[in-house]
Amino acid sequence: MPRTREHTLTLPVTGTTPDAVTLTDAERDELIALASGVLAAGPALIDEPAWLDTVRDASAMLPRRILSELRRFRHDAGPDAVLLLRNVPVVASDPLPETPSVPGSVERVPAVASALVTAAMMQLGEVIAYRSEKTGALVQNVVPVPGSENSQSNAGSVLLELHVENAFHDNKPDYVGLLCVREDATGDAKLCTSSIRRALPLLSERTVAVLAAPRFLTEPPPSFGGLNSVTPAHPILVGDLEDPNILVDFAATHPLDDEAAAAMSELREALMRTMSALALRVGDLAVVDNRLAVHGRTSFTPRYDGQDRWLHRVYAHLDHRRSRVDRKGGGAVLD
Ligand SMILES: [Fe+2]
């Protein structure tokens, strides 16, 4: 199914920010010590099996307040379905390398930032990746890539439409962690998040009923190169309609009839009216509950000078057994 929809609307940025937890200097020192321990004890490469074992062990020793916040978020992601930890260290004392700009960029060699984002996500669930996306790397770089400006993917720089991460996949991530390693100097690139909990009260009863029916198809994102299958028809609102999950990608989900199309439009409008927009700063770790919230990004202009916006992305899901069928050999990578 071709991606013919045009993304010409500007997201109405409200400037609101989800509740944030700012780390103290003492907590930063604890985290640098924890990451240093991982780098000293762990394997040479992130995607070796021993990496997750090492980080899992270390993650149990995160500062007490962070453990508590992660556990609380896991229990209930709140009305915004986003947890924002600020002031997370991304380097110890060494300088930050230049922002990569190659397609499919991932982190291979462990570093402070990759160790800490993995440790935090490990306390929410099991860290996973997808073989078809960035070669199954556990810590992926979200960076602008020359020639991919118009892509509806992590490599693009035009407006990235609101979406559930890997919405087409049977075992999509339950949580998406985005750690800002280098901020967009212009401040134009804003992470946009919107939760169905905020948007639901704005929808009519009829629209909710339509969105809860299997009247939609979702195609895989372009980062899953070569995969052409689409989902079976599915509902956008899933579960108890008093507090449903959301399953939609406004760049990849297609309504099957006119009424379904109108319901999708009303939903997008409601999500935009309740949206948070955040220019991530260095050390911001935004964790999105991928069952309750959609996310996207405003457009920005990369310079490709080594100083562009740079995020580490790590996925986690809650039920490792549920996805066993997709994890050949029992590792962390789903097919
Ligand atoms: Fe995404």
Automatic annotation (TrEMBL):
Alphabetical UniProt keywords: Dioxygenase, Iron, Metal-binding, Oxidoreductase
SUPFAM superfamilies in the record: Clavaminate synthase-like
Domain of life: Bacteria
A single MF term (Gene Ontology): dioxygenase activity
Signal sequence, renumbered to the chain: none
Annotated ranges, domain TauD/TfdA-like: 146-315
Sequence similarity: Belongs to the clavaminate synthase family.
Stated name of the protein: TauD/TfdA family dioxygenase
Organism expressing this protein natively: Streptomyces katrae
